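Reply to dn_fold:

You asked what the input looked like. This is it:
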Amino acid sequence: MKNSFEQIYEVVRKIPMGRVATYGQIAALAGNPRWSRVVGYALHVNPEPGVIPCHRVVNRFGEPSSAFAFGGVNRQILMLEEEGVPVVGGRVDLSRYLWDGHI
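and this is what came back:
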């Protein structure tokens, strides 16, 4: 049986380029909608930053993390924008860029 971090990483790996997911969405897809904070902890210690695209996870308002583990919030914004996801006014437009949870 997979531990919670492995379940979270499995879901985050599926977020396609050009899309974002929220912490709550990842928690629910990983099996426990109450794991939003656990998702944050897991992404902060991401063992494979080039493989597990934690930069594609934002909060419920579409805001990038101020504690982005691999270079701060500006790095996360840059990575999202490089994938075609604009961050305007500090937020991603979730109505346009939110991943639907399907591959």
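The chain has one domain: 4-95.
Hope that clears it up.
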